[in-house]
Amino acid sequence: MTRFFTQNTTIMYEFREEHQMLRESLRQFLSKEVLPRADQWEKNKECPKELFRKMGEQGYIGVNYPVELGGSGMDFWAAVIVMAELSYANIGGFTGSFYAHTYLPLPLINALGNEKQKECWLKPALQGKKIAGLGITEPNAGSDVAGIQTTAEDKGDYYLVNGSKTFITNGTIGDFVVLVTRTGPKHDMSLLLVDLETEGISRSKIDDKLGWHTSDTSQLFFDNVKVPKKNLLGEAHKGFYYLMNNIQEERVLMAVMSTYTAKYAYDKAVIYAKERQAFGQTLSHLQVIRHKIADMAIKLEACEAMTFRAVGDFIANGAKATNRVTKAKAYTADVCMEIINESIQIHGGVGYTEGYGVARAWRDARLFSIGAGSSEIMKEIIGKFEIDNIIHDKLFISSRKGAVDLQA
Ligand SMILES: Cc1cc2nc3c(=O)[nH]c(=O)nc-3n(C[C@H](O)[C@H](O)[C@H](O)COP(=O)(O)OP(=O)(O)OC[C@H]3O[C@@H](n4cnc5c(N)ncnc54)[C@H](O)[C@@H]3O)c2cc1C
């Protein structure tokens, strides 16, 4: 008897020895190359460009990209580990930049690019020699992607691009973007590979963000920019659909980022509660603190379970994993903030300062319910899906008050 629409996902999670080795080596790399400098980068609001190159050299950018392109050819769990470890290191800004390079434009090039495009743009990006971004958002179109106004006019052997983009991660330090352009009405869009040094492009850094200080965020302006036809990614006019097809990967990895930023804040709270003395005992002896920790632990477990389930669904069903991915993205973004908030509370006054890391986690994590599709948009998608997928003729519990259809 089918009562409600369900999707089959047997895989919960699958970490093997190769994944554990990746995790260990990345932890060592982060301890040596990143953690000692992270506070300085944060203070300077600096996105360390050379870190892309170092991570590329070590193979961390290309973990799940094909070997023939210079990747390691591992599965998607490897990407999950990379994003989890970066998030747990509490370098939210750089993690955002890395994510906006590795998992926003590059999967599009991998899926749609021809051999020459992969050689020219994807290979150096996987090596960290070129930094990339994805240009969708505009001053008048964020959630409403179909509202973008940046045009690409077909001029025979090139496109003439005019318009502007905003909030583009890696826009200032980056070498190129996958640019979403309008090539007709409504959903008629095309993706272009655009070298950011091209004549007619100007860039301006957005420097007054709440968080993500070690990430580079920019406005991009296009004034009669000539983009060669060979830089068209995939087919013309299909850009919107390509984006929608790619979006589950971006969202499920943001759920990973939320979950492991929350785990960082949770672990910090437990450590602090066991050390801090108050009224002749450690905080961890106070029942109210233990209950806070219990609540955080329960929420964290739920985040991890939901995220792993969504990853399993994404691996098995790709773009069709929308429902579980969207739920994980929305849930973990909100719950991550709740966990960090409690962690700050347990830290007391020092939690409100820079020294203990949780303040940074709080400002960085605030983006998770805005970026990669806001929580309101996620709930629209989930609500529609849930309502549309109830199988009406086999309802066990009918919509009539109190009526139960036992024949269904
Ligand atoms: C640090 C940072 C980095 C970013 N990096 C990138 C990047 O690399 N590339 C890129 O293209 N973009 C990037 N963005 C932009 C980001 O994707 C957008 O901010 C996001 O999609 C929301 O769009 P918006 O800001 O225009 O808000 P709006 O779309 O104007 O929404 C404002 C509010 O209204 C709500 N809302 C809007 N429509 C609906 C609806 N139909 N139903 C219910 N509520 C609704 C939203 O949820 C939100 O709460 C970045 C943003 C930030 C802050």
CATH architecture type of the largest domain: Up-down Bundle
Widest sheet, order of strands: 1-4-5-8
Query: Structural class per helix/strand content?
Result: alpha+beta
Residue fraction in strands? 5-15%
**Name of the CATH superfamily of the largest domain:** Butyryl-CoA Dehydrogenase, subunit A, domain 3
| C-alpha end-to-end distance | 7 Å
Q: What shape does the CA trace take?
A: globular
Tell me, rounded to a whole number, the average pLDDT. Answer: 94
Given as residue ranges, the uncertain stretches (5+ residues, pLDDT < 50) are: 1-11
H and E string: HHHHHHEEEEEEEEHEEHHHH
Plain-language structure description:
The protein is of the alpha+beta class. It folds into 3 domains: 17-130, Acyl-CoA dehydrogenase/oxidase, N-terminal domain (Butyryl-Coa Dehydrogenase, subunit A, domain 1), CATH 1.10.540; 133-239, Butyryl-CoA Dehydrogenase, subunit A, domain 2 (Beta Barrel); 246-394, Butyryl-CoA Dehydrogenase, subunit A, domain 3 (Up-down Bundle). It contains 11 helices and 10 strands. The strands form 3 sheets. A 4-stranded mixed sheet has the order 1-4-5-8. The longest helix has 37 residues, at 239-275. The termini are close together. The structure holds flavin-adenine dinucleotide (FAD). Residues 100, 133-137, 142-143, 167-169, 209, 212, 217, 367, 370-371, 374, 376-377, 380 line the site of flavin-adenine dinucleotide.
